[in-house]
Amino acid sequence: MEKTLQSGWFDIFRKKLIAEFYLDVRKVKNYQPDISPIVYCCLQHRRVTPKPRNVILSKKLQESSWATNTEWMSLQESIKKGDDINGYMSKNINDWQAIDYLLYTCNISHFHLYKNKKGGVRESLVFGVFTKEFFYALDIGDHNDLYKADYLVSIASSNWPDLDIFRVKEVAGKTEAEFNPKEFKRTANDPNLQYNMIAPTCFIDHNGQRKELDNHQNTALISFELNGIKIGKIPFKVYCAYINEIKYLEELDVRLYERYGAKKMSLEIDAKKKNYSVEIHLQRSKKLNYKIPKTFITCSLYY
Questions:
Q1: CA angle, 21 as apex, 84 and 192 as ends, to 5°?
Q2: Is residue 2 a contact partner of residue 249, using CB atoms and an 8 Å limit?
Q3: Mind giving me the DSSP string for the chain?
Q4: Which residues, at least 6 apart from 14, have a Cβ–Cβ distance to it below 8 Å?
Q5: For the residues 106-118, what does the mean pLDDT come to?
Q6: What pLDDT does 292 receive?
Q7: Which of 81-95, 165-179, 246-260, 279-293 has the lowest mean pLDDT?
Q8: Most-buried pick from 129, 218, 223, 272 (CB within 10 A)?
Q9: Highest mean pLDDT among 79-83, 270-274, 280-284
Q10: The pTM is what?
Q11: Is the pLDDT of residue 5 over 80?
Q12: Which phi and psi angles does 101 have, rounded to 5°?
């Protein structure tokens, strides 16, 4: 039995990549039709979903000269309104294989204070934590601060000790662990060294105690191979979404074949209704709708 729903699903993401990111996936290295959903989710993973959020400033930001900076005040309003701020991200935001090590390990996002048509520009970077409802702005620094995970996490912990922003190791008293920014930088910038940290960084909490983060805070990385071809490292969440949906579509394919004897089917996705729209090509075509699963992560609802 031909896996017709899967092939339609691959093509949907090929078209989404062209429409949303102006990327012809057929030109990527080691292209296979199967890779389109993976490329799409890798790009989405590092982006910020546009939606209104409250902006909360750390005490350090409130008391700094940045507090009255025109560009920063304007950017805050954009975040509050739910504007798309991905244009302020690094130019690597459109490189699907780029790794944002600070985000993946510590769940801290960064974006430029200024932008041009190609993306974020100049040295000034905003650091903070995005949740569904809030943006916790930690500090405004430069590219050197990308490797000061301990400093940034300490700001968050001391300002919002009661919020569940990070998973912290439950250890009695103080830890003697030390954070090495040079090693963090070396690991972050070398794809051959990037790995999943058991404790991404130590930090000073609101009580002045040295603590450690418990494992990666955003996503693990996984070395991925597709149809015998090595793809490289991708976020583990992307891998799970891909495998989950592949399995679901395989099972749906089988059910529809057994019920209707359909050898040819086409698939569309209704993004607004969050449905699969399946057309079964028989003597008289039949259209069926199925809800995209929400009980597990999928590429079709990846954001």
A1: 100
A2: no
A3: ---HHHHHHHHHHHHHHHHHH---GGGSTT--GGGHHHHHHHHHHTSPPP---EEEE-HHHHTSGGGG-HHHHHHHHHHHHT---GGGS-GGGG-TT---HHHHHH--EEEEEEEETTEEEEEEEEEEEE-SSEEEEEEEE-GGGGG-HHHHHHHHHHH-TTS--S-B---SS-------HHHHHHHHH-TTT----SS--EEE-TTS-EEEB-S-SS--EEEEEETTEEEEEEEHHHHHHHHHHHHHHHHHHHHHHHHH--S-EEEEEETTTTEEEEEE-SSS-EEEEEEPP-SS--STT--
A4: 25, 26, 33, 36
A5: 88
A6: 96
A7: 165-179
A8: 129
A9: 79-83
A10: 0.90
A11: yes
A12: -70, -35
CA 70 to chain centre: 29
Burial of 168 (0-12, 13-18, 19+ CB in 10 A): middle
Token couple for 156? 């968050």
235 φ/ψ angles, rounded to the nearest 5 degrees: -60, 140
Q: Distance from CA of residue 167 to its chain's centroid? A: 18
Residue 128 identity (one-letter amino acid): G
Residue type, 229: I
